[in-house]
Amino acid sequence: MHIKPPFTEIEIKRATSGFYEGHSMEIALVSKISMALLVIWALVWPANANGVLGSLNWRLLEDFNAFYIVIVGFFAFFLFVVAALPQTGRRIMGTPGEAPEFSNFSWFSMMFGAGLGVGLMVFATAEPLGLWGSNPEILKGGIAGNSADSLQSGYRYTFLHYGFHAWAIYVVTGLSLAYYAYTRNMPLTIRSALTPLFGKYVNGVFGHVVDILGVVATILGVSVTIGFGVSQFIDGLYAITGAEWMMDMTGEAPAPGTVGLIAGLVAIMGMSIISAVSGVGRGVKYLSNLNLVLSIILLMVFVIFGSFLFAMTTYGTALVDYILHFTQLSFGPHLPMSEAEFAAALPAEAAPLADSLYSGATNAWGSFEAFQGGLEGDAAALSPEVQQAAYAAGTEGRLFGWQAGWTTFYWAWWIAFSPFVGLFLARISKGRTVREFIVGCVFAPAMVCFAWMTILGGTAIDLELSGAAEGSIIAASNTAKLFVTLGEMISGGFLSAITIMCVVLIMTFLVTSADSGILVMNTIMSGGDQETDNKHKIIWGVILTLVIGTLLIAGKTNGGADPMEALKSAMIIGALPFTMVMGLMCVSLAKALYRDGLRDKHRTATSAAE
After folding, report:
1. What SS3 state is found at 92?
2. pLDDT greater at residue 286 or residue 204
3. Helices (H) and strands (E) in the chain, counts
């Protein structure tokens, strides 16, 4: 049986001269115009941009929450199967016998720094603490938040957000790109991953749209990461210098102000552009190695001075709990609850007051006490038992709001980040087997993330559980929690030295993320070329700076709102189309692996016959 060869003739029209020489003008211009319009909108009409983005974001979450949850679960199980099957797992992404380009240490360093570096600095303490106080088990009313009882469920969802699912998202994109680039000698660009399904049609408008979606998702995903990281960077500088000009001092606790955020952003992006110009072989590699070394030092500080025994006990029990609940976490979406559905679930005495009870009972970020305190008139006159029943009737609404605002936000963030991280993982993984790529890029970094979250976050929780912190860590902003935790552990000159090291670590993680993003965007727009002109790296660095800066400003327009809100909303909106592209990538890769297996059998049979 003859099996025709795979389609590999990708033709991306690139300019032969002028400013865009070597680049696809269609992809570059549409991407730049799209980002320019977003920048102008956020700069000229910041309040309108923030409001419209927030409203559209929530509408999409209502309609697509279940889609996000289920498809990310599918990504994880798809990769498990591909790695487990002998005929697919042993395939080398390169020529037979080709050795990996980078050592295991450098490979893991770059993977770790690009994938979750900044996120782990910002959320190492903030995520476990936040989920310790609010997670679905608490919303169901079975346990109290910020208690010993909520520790296990808090870490179940911490591991969910930073574990196998998160890295599976990156690896779906990375494996697809690496497989076609190194086994079929195709361009390292997004459209290559869809050739088994669409063939020659990827050479036209459809292929341009796919690549543009990848560029836009990358810009917005990297923007959110840098936005969080710059905020923590400013918190760290304030902890060292006490410079109030960087901070907004009007709230209950100091928070990074607009001036400080923009100043920090310009400094970070300037260094990122310099690093990107130096290329992945020098700048990114050396910064990534530095990141890993400094991360190990920070981890050892928590091991020696933190609650290491508490953390390790938590690690073991949380990992078992996470694995036991893995399937339910992967395929357990919650649906929005309408007011009519809420009214139907109410006891008879409360049903006429459904409109007064609905918003409080379905508020994922409140509590039963807050619900009771907000009741007025006839609703407040209901008996405590009926009020409790009314609150219980809104459980599904609270669970949906929590999942859409927390888990689905993370899935959208990682998906928006996946063209950047996936293409970067592909660039550094030539010569690895498919199984080695999946195990090395899903399981190994996830286990490190689990340890990081339990050692740093567990120390913060233990300090609060024991009463030593007296609520100071919980009260701090997300980006300041790490520094407050360090202040509770150590003091004096050692605290100052470790704080300075943390600021340097945050800075290098930010630079690594930004310069890798710049390199990836240029790779897509140059039709897969890994070496592009420096002027385009500089221009995209400037565009990225403007996107982040204007959306940070827009986020502060509604009465001192969180400056990250506009960035997060734009990112979730931009991630949705690329989520659909990733689903097609999985189908396409399954077809390619199956067909390549048939071709191998055919070649073996033909050789034996000869």
Report:
1. strand
2. 204
3. 28, 2
Q: What is the dihedral of CA 43, 46, 48, 52, to 10 degrees?
A: 90
Give the predicted TM-score (pTM) of the model.
0.90
Q: Which helix (H) or strand (E) is 550 found in, with range?
A: helix 534-555
Residues in CB range of 254: below 8 A, 6 or more apart: 238, 244, 247, 248, 480
Q: Is 551 buried (19+), middle (13-18) or exposed (0-12) by CB count in 10 A?
A: buried
For residue 529, what are the CA distances in angstroms to 98, 272, 516? 21, 20, 15
Whose structure tokens read 């994922």?
364
pLDDT at position 116, please? 58
Taken as a whole, the chain contains a residue count of: 610
What's the token pair of residue 582?
């990733």
CA angle 94, 100, 103 (to 5 degrees): 165
pLDDT of residue 271: 85
- In order of 84, 88, 179, 194, 199, the CA distances from 592 in angstroms are 17, 10, 9, 10, 12
- The answer to whether residues 124 and 482 touch, using CB atoms and an 8 Å cutoff, is yes
Separation of alpha carbons 180 and 589, rounded Å:
9
What letter would DSSP give residue 99? P
Instruction: Please give, one letter per residue, the 3-state secondary structure of 207-260.
Output: HHHHHHHHHHHHHHHHHHHHHHHHHHHHHHHHHHHCCHHHEECCCCCCEECHHH
pLDDT in tens, 203-247: 889 999 998 888 888 888 888 888 888 888 998 899 888 888 888
Contact yes or no for 72/169 (Cβ under 8 A): yes
Name the residue type at position 166: A
State the residue for tokens 């487990």: 84
